[in-house]
Design brief:
alpha+beta; 3-stranded antiparallel β-sheet; 15% strand
Length: 106
């Protein structure tokens, strides 16, 4: 027989959705794990990040305020995100994307 276990805070994964490609690349460089691509309205997509500590929005804002990262790392992350995005679009809205940043789950 199975017993019901309460869900601990460690097991709850918070997420951050980012619709801006350069900001998403910045989050990758800052160490946030990409979980997938989520289809949105009118053919737009958003990148879904793991945000266990709830600070992705703050880090994204730091990018918009001029925080700097390695240009080489930023360009590589942006290129990889474009590949992930085009792959998701090619699958007609399948938002489960597996890529070099790790496997995704929905």
């Amino acid at each position: 027989m199975y017993s019901v276990q309460p869900i601990s805070e460690e097991r709850i994964s918070r997420e951050h959705l980012e619709g801006d490609l350069p900001t998403a690349a910045f989050l990758i460089v800052k160490g946030f794990k990409l979980r997938g691509v989520v289809p949105g309205a009118r053919g737009h997509y958003a990148f879904r990040f793991e945000d266990a500590e709830g600070n992705a929005a703050h880090v994204a804002m730091s990018y918009l305020q001029g925080d700097l990262v390695s240009a080489r790392d930023f360009v590589a992350a942006e290129k990889n995100l474009k590949t992930v995005l085009y792959s998701a679009k090619g699958r007609n809205g399948n938002s489960n994307v597996t890529n070099q940043f790790g496997s995704t789950s929905r």
